[in-house]
């Protein structure tokens, strides 16, 4: 393949190949970074400061349940939060197409403000550029964030060590071990299906809204219980891609139960109509959480007491009895859950 395609930015195996085969050899050259770029976690860590960045090219800019503004703030906060860090500040950079309506810009800025206040993470710096009409598709927003190590993270790790060995100082994709339980904080597929239906006029947009939300407060409540070893937000490539990343990086199998995975009926209907798998549809307000066996039920209870985690469920377990990810189906068999080549719904974030 000689050219970049949409699949190279869709979060699945094709994008992972681009990053690993082409990008890392040029960009990852320091050996003294605590969590480097090559780890491909949701954030990097240097000098105990978590740092991440996202560019948002979503289409359309406004969708049921949110817009590019709320998405850009929420997604970047969540990437810091799943590392166990406390997000403390954001930056935002705008590239805007000539002719963009000022009233739409103000609406997007208002969403960013509302989400920033909700999460208590201020936007403290940024940049704005305007390009010729046709140079981009309306607007691109790039957000970055920094986060601090906290006593809450230390307490969480101390709780893990009561039950098993953990040599890491952060919550990482590679921390899963046999016996750890896998929790998903709510229903899956809402974000991708809401966008796809809105674009195509399929009618599901009246029933399905994006789940876009900052998760730092929900994650904080779960960490107060302790015992969390891994966290990741299942965005591009959905739950399938996230579980396969956790499995590969931790070198442990993951067995999930289909009956435990919550999918709204409208999302299920849309997936059946369009021939899609809900496990591969992107989310923007959910977390996949690995927890030591002994603390899983307590963490689940803490999640369910929050607005964002009210539909949380334990969906599976890490195990050395299988390789990769497998699912026990409702009819009683098992099937392999592979990482998708790309997200079936392009430009969802």
Describe the 3D structure.
By secondary structure, this protein is an alpha+beta fold. It folds into 2 domains: 6-149, PurM-like, N-terminal domain (60s Ribosomal Protein L30, Chain: A, 2-Layer Sandwich); 152-336, Phosphoribosyl-aminoimidazole Synthetase, Chain A, domain 2, CATH 3.90.650. Helices cover 32% and strands 22% of the residues. It contains 9 helices and 14 strands. The strands form 3 sheets. A 7-stranded mixed sheet has the order 9-11-8-12-10-13-14. The longest helix is centred in the first third of the chain and has 18 residues, at 102-119. The chain is globular and about 60 Å long.
What are the main properties of this structure?
349 residues; alpha+beta; 60s Ribosomal Protein L30, Chain: A; Phosphoribosyl-aminoimidazole Synthetase, Chain A, domain 2; 2 domains; seven-stranded mixed β-sheet; five-stranded mixed β-sheet; 9 helices
Kindly summarize this structure in a few lines.
The chain is of the alpha+beta class and 349 residues long. It is built from nine helices and 14 strands. The chain has helices at residues 13-27, 68-81, 102-119, 151-161, 190-200, 216-225, 238-250, 265-274, 296-304, and strands at 44-46, 49-56, 62-63, 66-67, 86-97, 123-131, 139-148, 181-184, 228-232, 253-257, 288-291, 313-319, 325-328, 334-336.
């Amino acid at each position: 393949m000689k050219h970049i395609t949409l699949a190279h930015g869709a979060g699945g195996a094709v994008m992972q190949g681009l990053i690993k085969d082409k990008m890392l050899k040029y960009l990852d050259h320091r050996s003294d970074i605590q969590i480097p770029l090559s780890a491909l976690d949701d954030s990097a860590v240097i000098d105990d400061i978590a740092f991440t960045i996202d560019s948002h090219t979503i289409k359309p800019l406004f969708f049921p349940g949110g817009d590019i503004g709320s998405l850009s703030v929420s997604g970047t906060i969540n990437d810091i939060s799943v590392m166990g860090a406390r997000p403390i500040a954001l930056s935002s950079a705008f590239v805007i197409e000539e002719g963009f309506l000022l009233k739409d810009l103000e609406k997007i800025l208002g969403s960013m403000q509302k989400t920033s206040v909700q999460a208590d993470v201020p936007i403290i710096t940024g940049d704005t550029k305007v390009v010729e009409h046709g140079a981009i598709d309306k607007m691109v927003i790039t957000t970055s964030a920094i986060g601090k190590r906290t006593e809450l993270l230390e307490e969480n790790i101390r709780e893990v060590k009561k039950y098993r060995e953990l040599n890491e100082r952060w919550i990482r994709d590679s921390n899963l071990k046999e016996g750890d339980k896998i929790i998903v904080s709510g229903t899956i597929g809402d974000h991708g299906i809401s966008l796809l239906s809105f674009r195509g006029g399929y009618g599901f947009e009246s029933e399905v809204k994006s789940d876009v939300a900052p998760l730092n407060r929900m994650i904080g409540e779960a960490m107060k219980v302790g015992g969390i070893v891994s966290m990741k937000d299942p965005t591009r490539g959905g739950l399938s891609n996230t579980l396969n990343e956790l499995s590969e990086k931790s070198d442990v199998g993951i067995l999930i139960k289909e009956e435990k995975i919550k999918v709204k009926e409208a999302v299920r209907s849309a997936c059946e109509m369009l021939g899609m798998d809900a496990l591969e549809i992107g989310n923007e307000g959910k977390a996949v959480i690995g927890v030591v066996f002994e603390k899983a039920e307590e963490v689940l209870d803490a999640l369910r007491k929050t607005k964002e985690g009210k539909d949380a469920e334990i969906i599976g377990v890490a195990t050395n009895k299988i390789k990769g990810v497998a699912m026990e189906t409702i009819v009683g068999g098992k099937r392999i859950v592979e990482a998708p080549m790309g997200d079936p719904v392009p430009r969802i974030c």
